[in-house]
Structure prediction request, 346 residues.
Amino acid sequence: MKTKNSSDPLDHEIDKLFASQPLRPSDGFSERVLAATSKVSVEQESLRKVYLWRWLTLPVAALLVVSFTINYLASTKTAESATSTLTSIELQEIFIFEEGLVGLTQVQDEDFNNNQLLKVLNLLNQETKS
Amino acid sequence: MNSCNSIHASIWTINSKPSNTGIAGKMDEDIPCDPEDVAEDIDSICLRTLARGDDSLFPNLVERWQGRLINFFYRSTQNRNDAEDLAQETFVDLYKAAARYNDNGTFNAFIFTLARRRLIDSYRKYARRPLDFVDPTDSFIQRQSEPADRSLEIEDAFQHALTTLPENQRSAILLLKQQELSYDEIAESLNTSLSSVKTWIHRARTHLRQKLQDLT
Prediction:
């Protein structure tokens, strides 16, 4: 938007001074600008590659963690199943012992009745006193 | 004024999506259009193409804007090398920021927003007023090569008067008178209200008139 043309010669002179362009670009100016911008373009491209690598390494790292975790869990389960086998054998042994003890409890009272037991204990006591 | 249709073929060889405004909106009718609107749309197209990853049009954009940017910075810094450095940095910023450009604002406002940001950063970096940017050899060399005349004296006085302006007033009046932006575009570039822009421009003009009235 331009201002109204003023009839004042001073305003006219000032406008003329504003409109003048005393400088021309030096030789090679546009080449220097384009060289600077192409450098920026290269930097932006390398930054994009860095961001791309970050985006790739993240899921790869997650994949590695998951695979290690699965592997670890699988090996733990194998160890647990090995432990339960041994335990079952022991359980069988324990069962056999229990059966044996149950058999002992079924010994007849006539073999080990209370009177006989008392007599035996009395004899033992007298022997110790003597 | 030229018809937009004749420009259509050359512009739409570019692989870009037509918009509903600007040149595409005038495709079906033989409606005369302002060359400034055409230039604005070309710059927008270049930037949108760049945002899609195709920088083949960027050199054309640099060619179109290098003179304007360098002179804008030169009027602020009074130093050719600084002006070119700032212009180069602005182009690099533009290249990086292409993806952020949207059609809500104009290309002019977008590029000068970036330019002014660079200018203010340079002031902070050097922590000095623009007057300190003055390279006395610039005008000395010029005086050596050209015969002294009144226009040179006025040019020097004008340049000096500009550098004594506050940065906001100088930027506002440069964007209006040198770069021919609209008041709305200037407000957007300077991130301020329309009323502030008008106030700054009025004050800048008054200041310049005071400084130059004895010379003209």
Q: What stands out?
A: The interface with chain A takes residues 55, 58-59, 62-63, 66-68, 70-71, 74, 80, 83-84, 87-88, 91-92, 95-96, 154-155, 158, 173-174, 176-178, 180-183, 205, 208-209, 212-213, 216 of chain B (CB under 8 Å). Residues 58-77 of chain B form the longest helix (20 residues). Chain B has eleven helices and two strands. Confidence is low (pLDDT under 50) at residues 1-29, 139-145 of chain B.
